[in-house]
Amino acid sequence: MKTALGRTRGARSRRHATLLGAIAGGSVLLLTLATGPAQAAGTAGTIDIGHVDGLHVALNEDGDQLVLGSNVDEDDYLPGSGFEAGYYPGSEVDASHGTPEYDFTVPAANFDYEPTAYPDTWVLPADEPPSFGTDPILYLGIAGTGEDLPAHGTSGPDVAYSLFNGLSTTDHITFDISLVSAPAGGASDIPSADVLGADEWGLTFDLGGSATEPIHHHFDWTFSHAGVYTFAVTASSDNAAVADSAPVVYQFTVES
């Protein structure tokens, strides 16, 4: 089992008492990434800049199945970015049954952000920019919860529960990410991930981050052309008592 080479960020120093949060277990999640401050067509809210753990894993209430959602880091939230910090469950961002309440955008500043390593390419970078205030890009990664996230709004009674409710520090979690569709001529890559097949990548992590946040990594994720990309994502563990997550479909609309 290979551990992904993405960067690791330490546990967050604090969390607000009120987080937007819970996961609707088994839901299909659709995240739309578009350009600039304008909202993507057909959406009610836009997450466009700042620190976003776009692929976020937790456990269901019974502690026997993984669930996926997304978390906007409240410590790196940028006022005026068009979204609120906190946890976004599938019930709030699922576009498979209609317009989501929120989506994600990649601003124009993400294009050619790493001109030496990835010229003329949109990049979700592994390294956090030195200043979000002067370099307002979307900084997206992977995380897992070590603390329960309170229910919010339309999510009803559902809560994203700590991974340690069913897993231990000796267990591992693997994210399987498959490219489902891309614009004509478009390609995407996750250079540090394991290559599982054509347009399919695996990222495996242990739970050694911290008691409050056992997983937190960032990695380079590239897009060669503007347009719509969709990825199917599942999360699994090597613990036989914990079932894999339901598939989640993330959509990235990359615009010039």
Largest sheet: 6 strands, mixed
Number of DSSP strand runs:
16
Biggest β-sheet: strands ordered side by side in the sheet: 1-13-8-3-4-5
H/E topology pattern: EEEEEHEEEEEEEEEEE
Mean pLDDT over all positions: 75
Indicate the structural class.
mainly beta
Alpha carbon gap, first and last residue: 37 Å
**How many DSSP H or I helices?**
1
- What is the CA-based Rg, rounded? 17 Å
Overall shape: globular
Unreliable runs: 1-43
Helix content: under 10%
Kindly estimate the percentage of residues that lie in beta strands according to DSSP. 25-35%
Report on this structure:
- The structure is a single chain.
- It is globular and about 45 Å long.
- The longest helix is centred in the middle third of the chain and has 4 residues, at about 90-95.
- It has one helix and 16 strands.
- It has a six-stranded mixed sheet with strand order 1-13-8-3-4-5. It has a five-stranded antiparallel sheet with strand order 11-12-9-15-16, with no helix packed on it.
- About 50% of the residues are buried.
- The chain has one helix at about 90-95, and strands at about 5-10, 45, 50-60, 65-70, 85-90, 105, 120-125, 140-145, 170-180, 190, 195, 200-205, 215-220, 220-225, 225-235, 250-255.
- It is an all-beta fold.
- The model is unreliable at about 1-45 (pLDDT under 50).
